[in-house]
Every structure is written in C-alpha cells, then in structure tokens.
UniProtKB/TrEMBL annotation:
It comes from the Bacteria. This is 3-oxoacyl-(Acyl carrier protein) synthase. Pfam families: ketoacyl-synt, Ketoacyl-synt_C. The lineage of its organism: Bacteria, Pseudomonadati, Pseudomonadota, Alphaproteobacteria, Hyphomicrobiales. InterPro entries: Beta-ketoacyl_synthase (IPR000794), Ketoacyl_synth_AS (IPR018201), Ketoacyl_synth_C (IPR014031), Ketoacyl_synth_N (IPR014030), PKS_Beta-ketoAc_synthase_dom (IPR020841), Thiolase-like (IPR016039). Pathway: Lipid metabolism; fatty acid biosynthesis. It is an enzyme of class 2 (transferase). Residues 11-424 form the Ketosynthase family 3 (KS3) domain. Keywords: Acyltransferase, Transferase. The keyword Transferase applies. SMART domains: PKS_KS. One of its GO terms (molecular function) is 3-oxoacyl-[acyl-carrier-protein] synthase activity.
C-alpha cells in the first residue's frame, strides 16, 4: 500500500474501506459477486402485482426483503439499511455509530396510486375533489402516518441516519440514473474539502410498481422480451430492445487514505476521479453529438490525473436501450479512439437490470470488486453483436484480468451524466 496520501492536485486520496450490496441476485457482497461473475441473471417474471394488460411483465425486483404490500419507501429503506450496515461493518465501524455524514441517492417520491385510491375512498370524495394536495392533507391528518411519511423525500435518509449513527444533516439527492454516482461524488468532495474524514454513500431504489412500469413503458424505454426474462437485457447487442427495470442498493464507506492508514483499515480500492456534465437537449435523449457524455468521461479521467490510455476496464452504463448504448459507445470512441477496441467494457445491467437511482452506487461496488479480485464481470446475452458498436464486451463469460483502473459510467434521464474513476488499492 502506498504511503502517499495526496493526489496530483494535493487533495486527500479517497479510500474505499467498506462495501455493501443488495440486488435481484441476492443480499450481500459475497452472493452478488459470486452470481455476477458466474453470469447469473436476476431478471424474472413479475409476481408482486397483476401484469394483465402491461406490455412488460418482467423485472429485477427484490422480493426477498419485504412482503408484496410494502411501499417503495419501505423497500428502499430496507435495502439501503442492509447495504449500509454491511459497508459500515466491513469498514470496522459500529453499524449504529458511524460518526460521519450520509449521502443518499433515493428515488423521487410521491403518493402511490393504491394509497391515493384508499384515502379517496375512505374520505368519500368525488372524482373532481380528488386532487393530490387534498389527499396529502388527508394523509397528514390521518391517525396512521405511514402513507404521509412515504411522501417525504427525506424519510429514508432520516431513518438511515438514526440507524447508522451518522453525523450532521443527511443529504438526499435524486439525479435519475446518475444518482448513485452523484452521491459518491458528494462524499468524495466533502472529504477533499476537509469537512470530514469519512462518509457513507448509499444508492437505493425499490420503486417497481404498476405505475412506474407504465410510465417507462410509455417512453418506449422497456424491453418487451417477456418470454425469456433471463435473456431480456442485452446491452450492446444488435437485438436489444430496451432496459429491464430493477431494484437494489449499493453502499460505500469512503475515507481519506491518511485516516484509513492511521487506523489500520483494509482498503479495498480508491476513488481517483469524478466527472459530471449536464445535457439540456431532451428529457430522455442524449445530445446527438454526444458532447455531454464525452465531457463527463473526460472530466472524470482528468480529475483522476490520468489519460484515457491509463484506463484498464470500463464498467458501462449499458442499459440495453437502442439509443443509450449507441450514444455511450460513440462517446467512449471519441475519448479513447482506437484504444477502445482493446479496452474491455461490460455491463452489469445484463444480469441485474437497471436499478435506476441505485445503479451508480451498485456498479461502483462492482467496480471496486473487479479491481480487488482481478475479475471482469461479463456482459451476458451477447449473442448477436451490433456491427455498428464494435466493443470488447467481455461477452457471456467473466474474465480474469489484473487491472489497475476502472471507469464507471452513469448517464441519466434529464441529462444528468456522472463518471467515476476507481483505482486498485495496491
């Protein structure tokens, strides 16, 4: 382990001392990594609710944590709590007295339709009176505060702060599919500024419901390959037809390397750089020239004090939608040039689906594990290569590789792009 604790700009080097994960593959780092590297899919048919009349009837939901009637807030908290306590314990801190700030990426919240209908029926209102603000007021005054609590964006972070014993006001952010990476960036920046010696950064999303499925379906974003769920997510393949909604949580404990070394902590990896760029072209589409994606990738690599030639592996955003995969490949080609053809790039989403708000955090966990274990997770279901996207996707089977750096991409709806660069601990 290097004893140099400052980076090329004189800032604290950021160490990752704790990891936690929950996904459709299972609970905990060990189960997730074993299944991920064996090419196991967590995509399955939806059993949580009735799918009659829906175009998409598959997902990567986490059904082993709570019952079918749990709210999205309850499930998001349960997964975040599981991942967070795993990460904090791994880092060697009490899981109820972490003592540093919490940065949480959580899904946007609103009253679920089943709760709206229940309150409306209970109140006996007419259709014309069933406004959202009125229902919120009914929920606020209701003896059972559970429904009202589920509408508060800070609810999950408040519960987590109490559970983990974090310090200061917990920060909740929601930047679409870049949220998990953005939460990590906030932790990195807080440590670099000297505001704290450590932080816990968590991304969670348990928001699969009939209405969320319908909304993404209306955007023509979801795969309709319902007949064979395990093969539905096909990043970078010619026959890809959309992403598969999924749930999960990822957590990282970040510390200044100086602090980690001083207390004798095991360092699993380093966060070397963070880059972000906004795209104002369209709510769901990328700017045709790819400049925001290109800018985010370049910014992350430059922040790490590296060049594209220094990147050994790319953990792709790789959603399996026709446009996103094409635009990500275009952006990477603009940055890496001819070197892209020999740089392995794979997508975890081929196995766990798209965990939306949690994606950047879960994929950061997998990036650190790839560095630590010397294994590249595969892109499964890569049987029909797209001749317009020539990449080494680590097709179908994991690959052993001694890598020193990873670029992890997160590109979200609304034009929110974030890229993280990770390094090996030794």
């Amino acid at each position: 382990m290097t004893t140099n604790t400052r980076d090329h700009l004189g800032r604290s080097i950021i160490a990752v001392t704790g990891l936690g994960a929950v996904s459709a593959l299972g609970r905990g780092i060990e189960e997730n990594w074993d299944k991920l590297t064996s090419g196991t899919s967590g995509i399955h048919r939806i059993e949580r609710f009735d799918t009659e009349g829906l175009r998409t009837t598959i997902c990567g939901s986490v059904d082993f944590m709570l019952g079918k009637d749990a709210s999205s807030v309850d499930l998001s908290y349960a997964m975040a709590e599981a991942a967070g306590t795993e990460a904090v314990s791994m880092a060697g801190f009490p899981d109820d007295d972490f003592g540093g700030p919490l940065f949480l990426a959580a899904p946007p919240v609103e009253m679920e339709w089943r709760f709206r209908l229940a309150l409306d029926k209970e109140d006996g209102a007419t259709r014309d009176e069933a406004g959202y603000e009125r229902l919120l007021e009914i929920a606020r005054k209701h003896p059972d505060r559970a429904i009202y609590n589920s509408t508060q964006c800070s609810r999950i972070s408040e519960l987590l702060a109490d559970r983990l014993g974090t310090r200061g006001l917990p920060i909740t952010l929601s930047t679409a599919c870049a949220s998990g990476a953005s939460a990590i960036q906030l932790g990195v920046e807080a440590i670099r500024r000297g505001e704290t010696a450590r932080a816990v950064c968590i991304g969670t999303d348990g928001s699969i419901s009939q209405e969320s499925l319908i909304r993404f379906s209306l955007l023509s974003a979801l795969s309709t390959a319902n007949d064979d769920p395990a093969r539905a997510s096909k990043p970078f393949s010619k026959d890809r037809d959309g992403f598969v909604m999924a749930e999960g949580a990822g957590a990282l404990v970040l510390e200044s390397l100086e602090n980690a070394l001083a207390r004798g902590a095991k360092v699993h990896g380093l966060v070397l750089g963070c880059g972000e760029r906004a795209d104002d072209f369209h709510r769901t589409r990328s700017k045709p020239d790819g400049s925001p994606i290109i800018g985010a990738i370049k910014a992350g690599i430059e922040d790490a004090g590296l060049t594209p030639d220094d990147i050994d592996y790319i953990n792709a955003h790789g959603t399996s939608t026709p446009e996103n995969d094409r635009m990500e490949a275009t952006g990477l080609a603009a940055v890496f040039g001819d070197a892209l053809a020999s740089t392995p790039i794979s997508s975890n989403k081929s196995m766990i689906g798209h965990t939306l708000t949690a994606a950047g955090a879960i994929e950061a966990v997998f990036s650190i594990l790839a560095l630590r274990e010397g294994v590249l997770p595969p892109t499964i279901n890569y049987d029909v290569p797209d001749p317009k996207i020539e990449l080494d996707t680590v097709p179908n089977t994991a690959r052993k590789a001694e890598i020193g750096t990873v670029l992890s991409n997160s590109f979200g709806f609304g034009g929110q792009n974030a890229c993280l660069v990770f390094g090996r601990a030794n």
